[in-house]
Structures are given as C-alpha cells and as structure tokens.
Design a protein that fits this description.
Blueprint lengths: L3 H5 L7 H12 L9 H28 L7 H36 L9 H34 L5 H40 L28 H9 L4 H8 L7 E5 L7 H14 L7 E6 L8 H10 L4 E6 L6 H7 L1 H21 L7 E7 L1 H7 L4 H4 L6 E5 L6 H8 L18 E4 L16 E5 L5 H4 L30 H11 L14 H11 L7 H16 L1
Parallel strand pairs: 1-3, 2-3, 2-4, 4-5, 5-7, 6-7
Helix pairs in contact: 2-3, 2-4, 2-17, 3-5, 3-17, 4-5, 5-6, 9-12, 10-18, 18-19
Length: 550
C-alpha cells in the first residue's frame, strides 16, 4: 500500500508542480465568455494537466542533458516548499475565481455566479487531471510492454518505433471508430429529430405568397423545423406598417429544406422557381441568406431588414444540414459550400440577365457558419463584370478567407477587433455599440460590412494563441472584453476553445449572440438608408422590444 500513491498520483517535481499550478491559476482568470462551474472544472483540469506535462518535459530534457541537480537533502526541502506554496496559490486563486467571473458577467449584463464554486471547481479539475494522467500512463505502459516483446526480435529503436505506431493505431481506432462515431450517430439522431419537429409557433401558412402554402412549389413538411420557423415568423405587412408608421408591403421569404429536393443543385433550382412564382425579383431588394449548420436564419436580422425596407424585400435561404454548425463543419464542410455556391449561381445568373433598371438590389447575408459559406459562395471571376450590391456577414468564423485577409491587412493603428481597411469604401466593420471602423470615403457600389463583437470567440479564436498573444488582446480592447483577460501560452488557447463552445451563452449583444438593434444599425449602414437616422433606429428598437413584451 505504500507504493499506491506513487502509482496513482504524480511525483511532486520541482518544475512540474509550479507550472501545473500556474496553468491552473491562469485558467481561472476571465476570458471572452463567462464559464459555469462544470465548464470551468473541465478547463482547469486540462490546464493543470498541460502545465504538468510541460514541466515533466522540461525535467526530462534537463535529465537527458545531464544538467546539475539539487542534492537530495535540499531537493526534499525544495519539494515540500514548492508544493506548499503552490497549494496556497491554488487556494487563493480559487477563492478569487468567482470575483473574476462576476466581473466579466457584469460587463456582459449576466447574473453573478454562486459562492460554492471553488470547492466544485477544485474537485472537478482534480478528477479531470487524474483521468488524463492515468490515460497517458496507460499509453506509456502499453508502449513499454509492446516494446519489450518486440525487443526480443528487433533492435531497441525499431521495437520502440513499432510499439508507438501500434499503440497510436489502437487508440485512434478506439477513439475514432467507437467514441467519435457513436457520438456523431447520437448527434445525428438528436438533430434529425429536432429538424422534423412541428411546433405550434410555426403554423402552416395560408397566403399564396408563402413557401409551404398550398400554392407553393415546396411542401411545408419538407422545410424542417428551422425553415418552418423562418416562414412563419413575423413581421407581416400590417405589423410593419403599425411599427414604422408608413405604408408597407408583405415581405417575401423562400426557404428550401433538405427534404425538399435530392441534392444541392436541385434545391437551388427549386428556390429559384419559388422566387419566380412569387415574383420576388420585382421587389426593391433581394437577399440570399445562407443559414447556419442547423438551417437556422437569425430572425433578428431578417426582421430588422424587413422593418427598415417597409417589407419591400425578398429573402431566400436553402438548408444544407440540420447539425450544429461546429459538427457540420467537422463532418462535411464542403456540403455547405456546395449548397451556397449552387444557390448563388442560380439566383445571381437570373438576376444578372434582368435589365439593370428593373432588377432588385442583391445582397448576401449569413451568420456564423452561414457567413463563412456565404463568403465562399462565389468567385471573383463570376461577379467582376456585374457584381452584386454587397454583403452583411455577422460573427464570421475566424477562418473566413475575406475577413482574415482584410483583418491582417488593416490600416496601421486600427484595432484588430474593429479594423479599418483602406478608405472604407468597400469594407467596413461594426460592433454592438454602433461604433464603426474609421472611414474616409463614402460607400462604393460594392460593399461588405462585418458585424462582430469583440467578445465573440467564434470570430477571434486564434490557433496561434498557443504561443503568441493575439492582436485583439492589445490595448485598447473591445468594450466587452475583460481587462482581467491575460495571455499565457497554451492556457489562453484552451480558454478560447472553451469560449467557442459556449459562445452563445451570453445575452443578445455579446459573444456570438447578435441582437435586433445591431442588425438594424448594420443594415441601415450597409444600404446607406438616409431615412433611418440613429434616433429613428432607436425608436424602432424600443417599439419592437415593447411589442415582444406584450
């Protein structure tokens, strides 16, 4: 039994323990999104393990280089002192963790956390750390056993290499073939069930101009839950007129679900035929709204535009998945791009063939993965001779090619979280405060506007944060980024990974949740709507909020 702690618990190394404690303490500091107890415990457990692993690596290199070591009598004292100091540091930071999180929650208008967090976080993080530690030790044990067996017939280095390869193949097959496959199958079953659900809030439409109505080319049952919600959502002509105090038209919405046609090209063609059926190209504005992975189109953005334009707008959207965006991106990223390209080609080709004086203004729109796929929906050579009018891309994922290129080549001195690009005549940025990037020229004919929050990890995740501080952490920071967010190698990247997974938890107007007010300002900016000054926009936002509270 004396040897049991040596087997189950890590040796308190002079280097590993302080690094593990540092990583653990930094994981408790705020990042972009507040964390609940379970999420914080998992993050802290991984951070603790990462710090311990780095420390063990440094110790192994030190030993291999045969660098001097402390004498045994001093080593024992240093270990005791190190463990004691690290334990005190962990207790202090655990006690401060709730205050750090509450400071960020106050910044994002969220309620404070409970006071019992330190005990739950400590126990949960220790459990995660031990699971990771034992997993690594299991791998190490298996490699040693296999290496010992192969060493009977092969030289030592060859035996070790084969053992490493076999162990990697074994664990990859178990992880990918059993755990990941079953998890994806379970997710597919869950999301497929959600997509097929009929909800009372999305009644079957009766008007002839509605997708899914009796007169429609697209069956109501084929739209999916998110498509039915988009078609059934307000506002209608009367609501727009009442809220704006001006004459209005019935806004047009077309949605094609995964079950509406067998493949992306067929769905795109069906969308075009439905647009033609309801005479959508006679409207003043036509928007191709690329949905998120679940097929969802943010109603706040759609409704804001319909109010601003008095209903004189048609929106078309085609579903390419019913999975959450990050799952869709991992499992079949090309399918969303293929659908977006097919829809753009079908709509744009017809739009381009119309007389310039009789065709609507054409805009692209997308949120999150919808923004990325919308960006990839066309090539420059398709539109260079006769471009569409512009795009509103909201919460673009950090890998979006146009966003990435513009942000990296922003004007010197402009912040990464709200860049200015050249003279601002083609590309601009806006955040939830209404603040826009500096511009020195009026809009050109072709326009791109990015709406993004500085606290949105989907936008500002940076894989290089593992070894370098992201530009957006430099002063001055975004209004919704905590001053207590400090960069530390490895830990910051772990925090940002967790922030991506919880990006929609903050209330509207923060993180990856975008609100009606921001959309209204963005659409008015993009379309240069002079009859919608800030005062009138604020009145619209207030009136709509009051309407939804009734």
């Amino acid at each position: 039994m004396r040897d049991l702690p040596r087997i189950l618990l890590p040796q308190p190394l002079v280097i590993a323990v302080p690094l593990a404690s540092l990583f653990f303490a930094m994981s408790l500091t705020p990042s972009l999104v507040p964390r609940d107890t379970a999420v914080q415990a998992i993050l802290s457990g991984f951070s603790l393990a990462a710090g311990y692993a780095v420390g063990r690596l440094i110790a192994a290199v030190w030993d291999r280089l045969q660098l001097p070591l402390l004498r045994p009598v001093w080593l024992k004292r240093v270990r005791i002192a190190t463990v004691s100091l690290c334990l005190v540091a962990a207790i202090v930071t655990l006690w401060m963790a709730s205050d750090w999180q509450n400071g960020l929650r106050l910044l994002l208008s969220m309620p404070p956390v409970e006071t019992a967090r330190p005990f739950s976080i400590a126990s949960g993080a220790l459990a995660v750390f031990l699971i990771l530690l034992w997993s690594v030790r299991l791998v190490s044990w298996l490699v040693r056993r296999l290496s010992a067996k192969f060493a009977r017939i092969l030289p030592g280095p060859q035996a070790l290499l084969i053992s490493l390869l076999l162990t990697a193949i074994l664990f990859w097959n178990v992880g990918n073939g059993v755990i990941i496959r079953n998890a994806l199958n379970a997710a597919d079953t869950i999301y497929a069930g959600l997509d097929g659900r009929f909800e009372d809030s999305s009644p079957h439409p009766q008007g002839a101009l509605k997708t899914g109505a009796i007169e429609s080319l697209i069956p109501w049952e084929s739209l999916g839950r998110t498509g039915r919600a988009m078609i059934a959502a307000g506002p209608d002509q009367a609501q727009i007129a009442d809220l704006t105090g001006a004459a209005a038209q019935e806004p047009l919405r077309v949605y094609v679900g995964l079950s509406s046609a067998p493949d992306p090209v067929a769905r795109a063609q069906l969308a075009l035929e439905e647009l033609l059926r309801i005479d959508a190209f006679s409207r003043g504005t036509l928007v191709i709204a690329t949905p998120t992975g679940t097929g969802w189109v943010d109603p706040a953005g759609q409704q804001a535009l319909e109010y601003l334009l008095g209903g004189d707008v048609a929106t078309v959207s085609v579903q390419y998945s019913y999975l959450a965006s990050w799952i869709a991106l991992l499992t079949d990223p090309e399918y969303g791009v293929e659908t977006a390209r097919a829809v753009f080609s079908a709509v744009y080709d017809h739009w381009r063939d119309l007389p310039a004086e009789r065709r609507p203004a054409l805009y692209l729109n997308g949120l999150s993965l919808g923004s990325l796929n919308s960006d990839l929906s066309h090539d420059l050579h398709q539109v260079v001779g006769d471009s569409f009018n512009g795009a509103l891309w909201v919460g673009p994922p950090f890998g979006s090619p146009t966003w990435l290129d513009v942000t990296r080549n922003r004007n010197p001195g402009s912040p990464a979280w709200l860049p200015s690009f050249r003279d601002g005549s083609a590309v601009r940025f806006m955040n939830q405060t209404g603040l826009t990037s500096d511009v020195t020229a009026p809009w050109g004919r072709f326009r791109i506007l990015y709406l993004q929050h500085a606290s949105d990890a989907v936008v500002f995740f940076d894989p290089r944060a593992t070894w370098r501080r992201p530009d957006w952490m430099a002063a001055p920071r975004g209004p919704d980024v905590s001053p207590g967010f400090h960069w530390l190698p490895i830990v910051t990247s772990l925090q940002l990974v967790v922030d991506i997974m919880t990006a929609v938890k903050p209330p509207d107007g923060f993180g990856h949740s975008y609100d009606f007010a921001s959309y209204a300002r963005a659409w008015a900016m993009l379309m240069d709507l002079q009859d919608w000054p800030e005062a009138r926009l604020q009145a619209l936002v207030a009136d709509r909020a009051a309407l939804h509270q009734e």
